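in:
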């Protein structure tokens, strides 16, 4: 079995989307305008699989949230704020209702701005939680569908595409990021690459075929890539640099071909215009978002990430073979290995044992030509070396830290292990090549006939055709099993009635720590301005506020809060144990010129 033999026997089942012949009849054109059954089935299967493999996310979508009560509550607020701001106060999009009185506070973290249209659906606290859970399922479905589409475009058959989609979207390492919606939202990467490859008539299996260029698909690919960037630079920035490098390599290859052949290779004006228009949109979106984050750093120099962060989160090599605790298949088995990692959530990077084995075999047996298999293998090696960060060679230079030093914005990517997005995708494509080659083996498609030419009912070839689908279910079943989760789904605390009764701007106590993220989510009921907030850095004004209010209520804290414009304080005594505000309900307010009332277990101080 080799790539040449596989190429010589195209079949209806194995044909990739790019291989479908263009129909000459009107009915053929009509069929091309309608979604092909394959893609409808792939989309529905991705959605169903996402519901199953993220279960029990959709069991109680209005009251629970996957992961923990930290980052998920922040990101539920982010999606809600984007939708609310664009509908009601678009000029204040970047100046959110949190961290009062600071500005550009919406850009204190990856914004998930691309989910704003979903954030416009519904309003209030419960809608914010439901919206987050629905997005959590949908982003897994999009990742599965995107990887399937990419594998198909690059030459895999349906079996190979299915293995690639599941292996990438539900890789064990992703379970460590159940609380990071911005990191899990990677489906646009694979989908954009699939569209761009289709638009340019290129695949791993057949290379560049000018007759299959589709300018519309190329434009769509650029637009999807731009949308992916709006979900955050955490994984969007590597995509920016990958596409920039791809453009330079493609342009160089085109120029070399032109010089060698002394004639211009076909490209097409329409495709060029599509690339220019799509690239301009992609570049503009990237630049505008980058300028906003630079503005945040200008206003808050402490927001600048140093390379010490990168060194702290750099995983050892064993991390690439270690699964996170939320993996049903490997979590307990790899507990001892995780104990050797200084920060398991960012260092448990197992892409899946099955996909590792399939990819290794895919270097030897594949539907792809040998040189392209080697290129994929080198890509896996290169991304693993980058993913090691500072542990590569002891300092990561040359390596990830070299990029942090020389590429604009790369220094903000403090977690090298997130290069696993690319490692995992390349492994999935190698696995797809192997599965495709097995599915297209000679015994499966050769006619089953007797020596005299008559049909033969029971032959080894006929048995192969029958058994092969069952055999191909094995790798698909294994990559699916490795995606089963044990992710906790805690109940989200509901906002107290006092939050709706207190005038804004307000302060919620106890302040500081992860609890501030819950308060941010609580504000989705009307989005009152609050001084609370939590990000990767602490604004100077917030540090001053924390120091001033430690003894609230007293004359100094009341005077300070009035001075910055705060009109009320909401205290939740049940959350105050172990904080400076423990026992706040017994502190007197006489002589302070403020009032206090109790509403449903919370206290409202009007200043």
């Amino acid at each position: 079995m080799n790539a040449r033999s596989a190429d010589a026997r195209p079949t209806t089942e194995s044909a990739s989307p790019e291989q479908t012949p263009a129909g000459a009849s009107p009915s053929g054109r009509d069929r091309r305008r309608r979604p092909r059954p394959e893609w409808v089935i792939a989309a529905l299967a991705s959605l169903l699989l996402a519901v199953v493999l993220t279960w029990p996310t959709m069991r109680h979508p209005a009251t629970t949230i996957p992961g923990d009560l930290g980052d998920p509550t922040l990101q539920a607020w982010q999606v809600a704020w984007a939708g609310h701001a664009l509908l009601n106060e678009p000029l204040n999009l970047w100046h959110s209702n949190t961290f009062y009185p600071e500005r550009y506070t919406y850009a204190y973290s990856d914004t998930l701005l691309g989910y704003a249209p979903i954030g416009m659906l519904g309003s209030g606290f419960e809608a914010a939680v439901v919206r987050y859970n629905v997005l959590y399922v949908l982003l897994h479905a999009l990742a599965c569908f995107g990887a399937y589409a990419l594998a198909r475009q690059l030459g895999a058959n349906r079996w190979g595409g299915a293995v690639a989609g599941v292996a990438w979207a539900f890789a064990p390492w992703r379970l460590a990021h159940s609380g990071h919606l911005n990191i899990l939202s990677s489906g646009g990467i694979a989908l954009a690459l699939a569209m761009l490859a289709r638009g340019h008539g290129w695949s791993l299996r057949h290379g560049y075929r000018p007759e299959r260029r589709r300018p519309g698909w190329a434009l769509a690919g650029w637009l999807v890539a731009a949308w992916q960037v709006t979900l955050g630079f955490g994984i969007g920035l590597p995509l920016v640099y990958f596409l920039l490098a791809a453009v330079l390599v493609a342009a160089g290859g085109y120029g070399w071909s032109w010089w060698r052949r002394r004639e211009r290779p076909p490209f097409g004006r329409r495709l060029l215009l599509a690339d220019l228009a799509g690239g301009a949109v992609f570049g503009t979106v990237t630049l505008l978002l980058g300028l906003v984050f630079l503005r945040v750093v200008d206003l808050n120099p402490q927001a600048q990430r140093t390379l010490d962060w990168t060194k702290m989160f750099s995983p050892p090599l064993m991390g690439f073979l270690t699964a996170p605790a939320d993996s049903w298949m490997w979590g307990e088995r790899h507990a001892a290995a995780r104990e050797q990692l200084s920060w398991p959530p960012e260092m448990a990077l197992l892409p899946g044992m099955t996909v590792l084995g399939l990819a290794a075999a895919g270097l030897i047996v594949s539907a792809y030509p040998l040189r392209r298999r080697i290129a994929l293998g080198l890509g896996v090696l290169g991304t693993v070396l980058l993913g090691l960060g500072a542990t590569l060679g002891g300092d990561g230079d040359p390596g990830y830290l070299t990029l942090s030093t020389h590429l604009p914005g790369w220094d903000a990517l403090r977690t090298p292990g997130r290069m696993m997005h690319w490692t995992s995708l390349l492994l999935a494509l190698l696995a797809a090549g192997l599965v495709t080659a097995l599915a297209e083996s000679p015994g499966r498609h050769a006619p089953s006939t007797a020596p005299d030419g008559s049909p033969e009912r029971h032959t080894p070839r006929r048995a192969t055709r029958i058994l092969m689908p069952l055999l191909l279910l094995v790798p698909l079943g294994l990559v699916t099993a490795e995606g089963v989760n044990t992710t906790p789904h805690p109940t989200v605390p509901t906002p107290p009635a006092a939050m709706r009764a207190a005038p804004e701007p307000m302060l919620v106590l106890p302040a500081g720590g992860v609890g501030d993220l819950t308060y941010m989510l609580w504000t989705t009921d009307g989005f009152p301005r609050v001084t609370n907030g939590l990000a990767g850095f602490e604004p100077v004004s917030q540090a001053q506020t924390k120091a001033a209010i430690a003894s609230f209520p007293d004359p100094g804290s009341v005077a300070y809060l009035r001075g910055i414009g705060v009109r009320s304080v909401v205290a939740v005594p049940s959350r105050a144990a172990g904080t400076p505000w423990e026992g706040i309900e017994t502190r007197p307010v006489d002589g302070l010129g403020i009032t206090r009332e109790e509403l449903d277990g919370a206290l409202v101080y009007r200043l």
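note: Residues 3-13+35-430 form one domain.
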